[in-house]
Records
---
Amino acid sequence: MRNASRLPAETNGPLVRPWLARLHPALFGMPLGLLGLAGAWSRFGRTGVEEALAVANALLHVALALLALLLVLWLAKLARHGTVLMQEWRHPVQGALLALLPVATMMAVALVAVRWPAWQPALLPLAILVLAGQAVMAWHVVADLSTGRTPPEWITPALYLPTVPGGFVGAMALQALGQHGWAALLMGMGFGAWALLEMRILNRLFAGPLPLALRPTLGIEMAPASVGSLAVVTLWPSLPADAMMVMLGVASGPVLAVLTRWRYWSEVPFNAGFWSFSFPLAAFSGTTVEAVHRGSWPPVVAQIALGVASLVIVYLLVRTVALLLRGQLLPPS
């Protein structure tokens, strides 16, 4: 019986990896979305709604706990199944999705540095380390894409992650740590990467539907404009409301482009990849809250934006817990 488990897949049924080896990088979209929502509620609380600060605090603690758990599991995966992790690193899409790990960590740094300023001296070395790892991921993705090693059918919005949302969220983290100059530089790098990748990725998206397995990544298409707007608002607190509303107008374009293709991504059974919708919507709602606070829009606009983002993330959370309870959260192989 002991030797039977070592038979090749073709004589012993499909190869099923241990659950630890099947941890998918898309899982880091969960704490990232919750962290983005915590930031949006925190901004809403600073407009005078004290109850919102309690919601933001609860979301922050849950997100940090989930992020810490996933980081520990990923370290265990590296130790036990390093070859599997290297396969994911070399994969055109999963390699890009691995950038969710540093992006989520940098978002946590940005929120923790504001919530607990005493931690800032310890967070700065962590931020530098994470940014270095993120830079390696960005180099890997851009090198493959720019030299034609990424097959056209694997070009997806996930390729934005290491460079564009990574640059913007990294800028927010450095701003929270008091490094405004470096934050502005990183912001510019994020915009430059967006310009570099946008034409290639949009050309693929307008060429026809993505393969079914890649369609959950369509939510990331909303990230560059939405997260970029939030980063600009964070770095320049005195920015006038009119400029913020222009950015919201730009960010609404990708949101509508994703919504118009709802038939494409709704054909896919729910999985953790759909958390790609969470952080862009949370960032969009956070920018809306700031625009309402600084401008002349009625408060109900901020409430609606925050409510929609919260409902979507609650829906994602409920569906994810249901998958976990049924033992279907991780892909079978």
---
Amino acid sequence: MQISPAVEDYTKAIYALQERGDGCAVTTNALAERLGVTPASASAMVKKLAGMGLVSHVRYRGVQLTAKGSAIALEVIRHHRLLEAYLSESLGVPWDRVHDEAEVLEHVLSEELEELIADKLGNPTHDPHGDPIPTRDGLMPDEPTVSLQTLATGDCGRFVRISDADPEMLRYLAARGIAPGDGFEVIDKQPFDGPVFARFAGEVHVLGGTLARAMRVEL
């Protein structure tokens, strides 16, 4: 089966939306919003994916990836996150720039080069943003996390991952020396989606509600 970059992008987007929705079906509107296309374009591609056996329709709810569709999505995600790790660790590309580069290169990465990169990096398990890298046999590690915004004053834990979709957030954290793997303590939290005051390495940082929601942590 010939898999185009567009098909790879759609399966990857559906996978991400399913993960965010705890495995629920994905609506065409949600898919269109994520990919920045019109609902009509998304609907047409969904029909194509269904014809290829990559998605199945859930009546009145949307679509879900089939096993074949999930395998394609996980392979593309593996390419993307390995490339991000390589660009960051071997080439020194800042973590707020690796996403856009990997978005292009993920579609042309050969299996041979994928293996060379993985071996070169010592078979990493996470990308620079803390996202798990699918295994060679197409399995996504199960790593439950919670949003920093949900914690209460006095809670302690470890910052483990953040989306690579917003470079400004990544630059904000980098400027303050905050990265996945760092321990923290919630010092204060303002109501009504207000900022979270968290101590990292002895220094208290003010993290806005939007940023705190995006930061995934382990208690």
---
Amino acid sequence: MSDDNPLSLACPVPAPAGAQILLAHGEGAGLTRRLIRELLLRELDNPYLRLLGDGAVLPPVEGALVVTTDSSVVSPLFFPGGDIGKLAVHSAINDLAVSGAEPLYLTLALILEEGLPLATLQRVVKSVAEAACACRIPIVTGDTKVVARGQADQLYLTTTGVGRLRPGVELGARRIQPGDVILVSGPLADHGLAILAARENLGFEPPPQSDTAPVHELVAELLTTTEVHFLRDPTRGGVSAVLHELVEATGFTMIVDEANLPLSDCTRGVCELLGLDPLHIANEGKVVAVVAANATDRALQALQAHPLGRHAAVIGRVTGDRPPAVLVRSNLGQLRRLEEPRGSPLPRIC
């Protein structure tokens, strides 16, 4: 390859028009090295990654380690409020956060399709770098593969998160008891509707905005101020999927008050127009928390003190009613059973 190859980049100069990913970029030879050094390392540079070893050697950590892995396959790659790069970073960090961990490090794996515009890859990697930098979590190692044209949809990302379990934190469905209270950290369903509107070109004005955001600092505040029994980020399947999982794990009933669900005006309008239940729709920057009843006020204060939690609300409670189910109390006070969705109405949302 000559020196005028379009992959000879000088950051921040954008990729030349028409430059694309080739199968040779995944062969481990010269083009692979140039892609890594001249694009990925320029954006993601830090002392761990700079060594470009087969793995990162990390300093010792006091306490238990928490590890999570998440793949991002969202379509479209860019949407109002976010993109696949931000999503990949936030998803791993949020999984660590709701596991009770302080996020420490990330890894990044990229599956690239032959023909992917290099400018698109640059834009995504820049977004990854900005999101990781904003969270102060370095990407310490990674991997890049290329598949033939038609074997992927432009690109997929996989992030692995490594964190340290916060001292004294014990979370899990086993801790939930009848009488516990269910909270959410803010308005629901924004992400799923943003993807739906962008993918289908629904033309809403203003368009729904994704809520993708890192929740680790919000969760840290919550865990230091109150007795929390369970945390989860309600992504695919939304709050409904979380509550059905809890019914199955605990044998208790979850009752949700429809009137208390926090929804943006835009989301409420879109759901009413399209006949969608916001409880079934994905979120990417929210937390479901189950806390002891006597800690409700402290939990709300902790959440609402953080910018991401200023619209936090109590949406329901746990009961020992039989048979166990997820029930929704309507605005008129009637209870209805919330069925778990059968198959995703909107695949590839994260």
---
Amino acid sequence: MSFDVDVAVRRGEAQVAARFVAGDGLTVLAGPSGVGKTTLLHMIAGLLTPDRGHVRVAGRTLFDAVTNLPPERRSVGYVFQDARLFPHRRVRANMLYGARDATRVEEVATTLDIAHLLERWPRTLSGGEARRVAIGRALLSDPAFLLLDEPLSSLDPRRREEAMRAIERVRDSERLPILMVTHDRSEAERLGDRVIDVESSPRT
């Protein structure tokens, strides 16, 4: 299985918890804002330690009662809600930051339809273009799996469609386990090979 996750963590008075097993392809965690979807990604990426449970990706244990690999050893490509590009580096240099295979930059840029942007500065990019650059940077790090946190939020319809097509191409060409979170059901159903609903945990 691509993802085998059973985690819980207390955040203030509430608990964020999820349990799911997912096969190959793109899995979507769907639910309204505030239910802890980003917190779940942080636990899978190693940015937040769960109170209990386990995280296994493609049969590799990242977290359990005796194991807690740091983020840099999890081989994760994480695309945050904000693109987090370096403003002083052109697009090409941003994509190559942390790259393990610099020879793939043109190929990845073509897949994401950003080859014409490689010499541009981040400040000149639209929101959708910046998200695609961030996805490209994550792919060039040669990750074992990819996490996408609301990659289409706050985009206008045209940019949203461009970003969705790019994610579809990555899903179909890279053959990576991908976990994406969204509050938009139409995005989830279009992009996901499966959709898992995330609900609020009761306060205790």
